[in-house]
Design goal:
Blueprint lengths: L11 E4 L16 E4 L2 H5 L4 H9 L4 E4 L8 H13 L4 E6 L1 H15 L4 H4 L1 E2 L9 E5 L11 E5 L5 E5 L7 E4 L9 H19 L7 H23 L4 H20 L4 H13 L3 H31 L8 H18 L16 H9 L2 H4 L8 H11 L1
Parallel strand pairs: 1-9, 2-3, 2-4, 4-6, 5-8, 6-9
Antiparallel strand pairs: 7-8
Helix pairs in contact: 3-4, 6-7, 6-8, 6-10, 7-8, 9-10, 9-12, 10-11, 10-14, 12-14
The structure holds nicotinamide-adenine-dinucleotide and zinc ion (ZN).
Zinc ion binds next to helix 6 and helix 10.
């Protein structure tokens, strides 16, 4: 029996190879703000979507200046461009960065509010312009979530979390992720796995539906991540990764992520380490720290990574869960120490200080983290 819970599934989903060509039928008529990044346009990834929108007679205003870990100023520029073009709907096309910018731009198109007023949970109370999100990484799951993460001028990663940020549609087209290079496939795939793991161990809002979604997400992601790195054109495996990343997104929209993300964010905000890699670098250290509070949950998840682990006792299964993830991170070629990405002892205090500001996430961790714990975790990861 549960203590009672609420659950929001998020956007409608259209999934399948080539499905971006159907984008026009999912949007209301009128001018569209199309938010993406230059690299994706150069790859020709958006060609099918843009052709479909043009054929439908819409005018399209392309905003392609989104950078990884997008700045708050980027969102303001996107919204201003959309307003000038008279956009009535928004498409977010790319990884988490363009999708997050698109979400907030869709909100600002119909709500003239300063960003400072909407940072945090439940502050954006207006209604956003219609929004479709097309992920090209698998991924942040941002197409599923009511969350956008922006970086302020002083390197702080702040979240806007509100139902108004949900897209109407998530378009999952595995053709879009074929061009993803192995290093980004690996990092973003671990990010999705961390979403599933942290949702499953989330301290306050975990529930039977988020648990089911997190388990299925982890099964899909663990079963396919090596395949997509070995063969980026394996469409079946790419689709499974996109679905896994999406389900993890639905799970953590309801059962929020915790200390892995809280400790990862300062690495992105201050040192521009990609989000997925930041998570991969902190993951196993945080899992070991959480072990006294989360052993049972880790033991339950372990067989989803490797079925043979089901034969072990609970303690051994939980330990094997962490060592299997650690091995996976090494196998897929990601760096596994902070020093390998240029971080040294002199940065530990700043990192710990910044991580402690992520109270929105730390309250979800199964074990309380103090500043000294955060510093020790960064030190262990050096
Ligand atoms: N809103 C949420 O719920 C949520 C969840 C997790 C992370 N995030 C945020 O998302 C951002 C990270 O997003 P991301 O990891 O998807 O990366 P990203 O969007 O920053 O993209 C990283 C790089 O990959 C390239 N790329 C993306 N798709 C490609 C493709 N198919 N082929 C070739 N290159 C491709 C991009 O051009 C870019 O250079 C961070 O800002 C993070 O904080 C948001
Ligand atoms: Zn993440």
């Amino acid at each position: 029996m549960t203590n009672g819970f609420s659950f929001a599934y998020g956007p409608s989903v259209r999934c399948g190879a080539g499905s971006t060509a159907q984008i026009a039928e999912l949007l209301p008529p009128g001018p569209v703000l199309f938010v993406t990044d230059k690299q994706l346009l150069d790859h020709g990834l958006a060609d099918a979507a843009l052709a479909a929108l043009r054929e439908s007679g819409r005018t399209i205003s392309i905003f392609d200046s989104v950078e990884p870990d997008p700045a708050d100023a980027t969102v303001l520029a996107a919204a201003a461009q959309g307003r000038a073009a008279g956009a009535v709907a928004v498409v977010g096309f790319g990884g988490g960065s363009p999708m997050d910018v698109a979400k907030v731009a869709a909100y600002l198109l119909t709500n003239d509010e300063p960003l400072e007023a909407i940072y945090g949970v439940g502050k954006a109370t207006g209604v956003a312009a219609p929004l479709i999100l097309c992920p090209t990484t698998a991924g942040t799951g941002s197409e599923a979530t009511p969350i956008a993460i922006l970086t302020t001028a002083d390197g702080r990663k702040l979240g806007i979390v509100a139902p108004a940020l949900y897209a109407q549609w998530a378009l999952l087209d595995p053709d879009l992720s074929v061009s993803l290079p192995p290093a980004i496939t690996a990092a973003t795939g671990i990010d999705a796995m961390v979403h599933a793991i942290e949702a499953y161990t989330s301290a306050r809002l975990k529930n039977p539906i988020s648990d089911m979604l997190a388990r299925q997400a982890l099964t899909l992601l663990a079963g396919n991540i090596r395949k997509v790195i070995a063969d980026g054109a394996d469409i079946a495996a790419r689709e499974a990764m996109l679905l896994g990343s999406h389900l993890a997104g639905v799970a953590f929209s309801n059962a929020p992520v915790a200390a892995v993300h809280a400790l990862a964010y300062p690495l992105g905000g201050l040192f521009h380490i990609p989000h997925g890699l930041s998570n991969a670098l902190m993951l196993c250290h945080v899992l070991r720290f959480n072990m006294p509070a989360a052993e049972e949950a880790y033991a339950q998840l372990a067989p989803l990574l490797a079925p043979e682990l089901a034969a072990l006792g609970e303690r051994e299964r939980a330990q094997a869960f962490v060592s299997t993830l650690s091995q996976l991170i090494a196998d897929i070629g990601l760096p596994d120490t902070l020093s390998a990405v240029g971080i040294g002892t002199e940065h530990l205090d700043l990192l710990a200080e910044e991580a402690m500001l992520q109270t929105r996430l730390l309250i979800n961790n199964p074990r309380t983290i103090e500043r000294a714990d955060a510093r020790a975790l960064y030190e262990a990861a050096l």
